[in-house]
Amino acid sequence: MSQPVLELKDASIFQRESLILSDVSVTIEKGEFVYLIGKTGSGKSSFMKTLYGDLPLQKGTGHIVGFDLVTLKEKDIPFLRRKLGVVFQDFKLLNDRTVKDNLLFVLNATGWKDNAAMDTKIDEVLDKVGMKTKSFKYPYQLSGGEQQRIGIARALLNDPELILADEPTGNLDPQTSVEVMQVLQEINKNGNTILMATHDYALLLKYPSKTLKCDENQIFEVVQKTV
């Protein structure tokens, strides 16, 4: 049996001294597509931040892509993030650089040296999100949906073992949300494991999958009723 990509047991999530979530036990296996739902303020973002090393895990046990979250040191965080792809609600693209230069920035920062290999990788990830012809554009020249596709391409650059998508459709209209969701579904079909925080219940109905819910300081799996 392969090691789960993410496993938390009896974990407590804190933001400074405030307890946000308690007794969290979650397992995500390789290849799964998992939703994380819950009202604003229910702890979704704090949970995500704990997974990529922004908040320390102070209680319980937690392993993600081979890293122990309890003993994670500051110097290990860049290595953890190389094995994760993070997609943000507000895209977080560098507006003064072209799409290609945004992606080159990440490759340079994560230790790539071979220019030809970098060009090939950028072409590959842009192709996966249907943006190969837009590499010379600046983010402000793109629509919100296109910017999020670039955000997803950026998350794929280092072949992550897990993609954390934090409200990736939160700033998009319903039609564009569906288009971005189709990109994520396609990536998942190709073997990428995805944990996606969302409050867009229309997407859950359209693309049902395993669902975790944050509510009253807990995270639990929701059994979706089939129609």
From TrEMBL:
Question: Which purpose does this protein serve, as stated in its record?
Answer: Part of the ABC transporter FtsEX involved in cellular division. Important for assembly or stability of the septal ring.
Question: Record's InterPro entries?
Answer: AAA+_ATPase (IPR003593), ABC_transporter-like_ATP-bd (IPR003439), ABC_transporter-like_CS (IPR017871), ABC_transpr_LolD-like (IPR015854)
Gene Ontology CC: plasma membrane
Lineage: superkingdom: Bacteria
According to its UniProt record, which protein family does this protein belong to? Belongs to the ABC transporter superfamily.
GO molecular-function term, one example from the UniProt record = ATP binding
Q: Which Pfam families does this chain map to? A: ABC_tran
Keyword entries, A-Z: ATP-binding, Nucleotide-binding
| Protein name per UniProt | Cell division ATP-binding protein FtsE
Domain ABC transporter, chain residue ranges per copy: 6-227
